[in-house]
Design goal:
- The protein has about 325 residues and is an alpha/beta fold.
- The strands form four sheets. The protein has a seven-stranded parallel beta sheet, sandwiched between helices. Strands 7-10 form a two-stranded parallel sheet. A two-stranded parallel sheet has the order 8-13.
- Helix 1 crosses helix 8, helix 3 crosses helix 5 and helix 7 runs parallel beside helix 9.
- The protein is globular and about 60 Å long.
Length: about 325
């Protein structure tokens, strides 16, 4: 039975990856910051077979301990301060967790596995935010980085460290340059979930409007469940490499609103949406769209969920969740 350790097990990607690996016969371990973590009951409910270990990406000894206990064949580093907007307000924490955390987990692997690094494979969750002020469109593995946020800078640091440990120590280490990927499990602070949750509450009569930032920003949005499959495929290859994972389509926040409100029968959402400059980023990334040709050709990967289906899935899930929370009977769309 193969063994895997997932940092960031409590996040959207960690949950989907845990489900995927469990379905493929893995013994799965998840890293959590203390057993009093409020998200632990959710993980235990969704992933009842997963063993949770205490550890923190800001604490090297705890990572060494988690590796010694789990002895994984595969390590997936998904842990990070992952909300871009917060990274300006908590730049130091973002650097320590999202950037230096990669160094610590790589060092922990090197310490625990010593001269036998061939026994373990490592996946680093890199990000399309590293491209930032893009030099070419679409973005591919060879596109230069120009990050526009502390989060993007920290991810770039972690990405190059992963490459360095691959080249310096011969570690089987891969980075997935994942473009935006969403799901009903996405945190409510992210714009896609903020929209789907607000639309659900407007439909149920629980609120009247939603306040957003730049409605013209464009992103390449895919389904998180598809993207964790790409992570797993990277670690099954004969040689380690880095891959862009994306749909190749770009959509604006306005298009996101079009699909989300159409799901509840609203064609003109203007009276329900306020654009507030307070929610604009200090340095905006206007458009991101990825070229996943390499992933298609080498990994045999392709997205299975389209943009419209993804947004409708999220709205439907939030209508159900918000209705239950309010003690209402979820209406049928």
């Amino acid at each position: 039975m193969p063994r895997a350790l997932i940092t960031g097990i409590t996040g959207q990607d960690g949950l989907y990856l845990g489900e995927l690996l469990s379905s493929r016969g893995y013994e799965v371990f998840g890293l959590v910051r203390g057993q009093s973590n409020p998200k632990v009951p959710m993980v235990e409910r969704i992933l009842p077979g997963v063993e949770l270990l205490e550890g923190d990406l800001t604490d090297l000894p705890s990572l060494i301990g988690a590796l010694e206990v789990s002895q994984p064949d595969e390590v997936y580093n998904l842990g990070a301060v992952s909300f871009v907007g917060v990274s300006w307000k908590q730049a130091e924490l973002t650097g320590e967790t999202t950037g230096m955390g990669v160094l610590r987990i790589l060092e922990a692997i090197r310490i625990v596995y010593g001269d036998d690094l061939s026994r373990v494979r490592f996946y680093q969750a890199s990000s399309s935010e590293m491209f930032g002020k893009v030099r070419e469109t679409p973005q591919r593995e060879t596109t230069p980085f120009h990050p526009r946020s502390p989060y993007g800078v920290a991810k770039t640091f972690g990405h190059y460290l992963t490459v360095n440990y691959r080249e310096s120590y011969g570690l089987f280490a891969c980075s997935g340059l994942l473009f935006n990927h969403e799901s009903p499990r996405r945190g409510p602070e992210f714009v896609t979930r903020k929209v789907s949750r607000a639309v659900a509450r407007i439909y149920l009569g629980l609120q009247d409007s939603v306040t957003l930032g730049n409605l013209d920003a464009r992103r390449d949005w895919g389904f998180a469940g598809d993207y964790v499959d790409a992570m797993w495929r990277m670690l099954q290859q004969d040689e380690p490499d880095d891959y862009v994972v994306a749909t190749g389509e770009t959509h604006s926040i306005r298009e996101l609103l079009d699909v989300a409100f159409a799901r509840i029968g609203v064609s003109d959402w203007s009276k329900h949406v306020v654009s507030d400059p307070r929610f604009f980023r200090p340095a905006e990334v206007d458009i991101l769209v990825g070229d996943a040709s390499k992933a298609r050709e080498k990994l045999g990967w392709k997205p299975t969920v389209g943009f419209k289906e993804l947004v409708e899935m999220m709205v439907d899930a939030d209508i159900k969740a918000e209705a239950e929370a309010a003690g209402l009977t979820p209406p049928k769309l």
